[in-house]
């Protein structure tokens, strides 16, 4: 769904993420990455491999939530966050702009079906609802229920009820992508050195 509705400068796909040192992430259900300014996206044995600098967000999509599934999703997200990312100064006609700071990689958990009370098995955020959010979670979309959001700055937690949580999530994601602007300028030479070895 995401790849159909995102603006064309972005792409969403099941993919692996790689860094210029040759480290790979686990396979991620949904990687949202820059397609306009990413000079290369690998494809190997029908698997998409995205450079770490191009990644905006990673999501795990599951049928249900449990403590084990959330811990599994956390490990997969951590495999992306630990990757090395480069950012070079940006040349222009009058000289160069400083290298762009690395953008945060957002993460989330997309649930297609929910039955009963959710116990996510991580830090307690709203005990009356039985909701446990994974650390650093940005979004959780629950089919037919609503959308959970939180942030790392003040750990605020919000649940928005709604009949169209997937649509609300899509609009929220597009707004975040617009706010982030372009990804950093990738050090292509660093990838070239890795691939040459």
UniProtKB/TrEMBL annotation:
<protein>
    <recommendedName>
        <fullName>DUF6602 domain-containing protein</fullName>
    </recommendedName>
</protein>
<feature type="domain" description="DUF6602">
    <location>
        <begin position="1"/>
        <end position="83"/>
    </location>
</feature>
<dbReference type="Pfam" id="PF20247">
    <property type="entry name" value="DUF6602"/>
</dbReference>
<dbReference type="InterPro" id="IPR046537">
    <property type="entry name" value="DUF6602"/>
</dbReference>
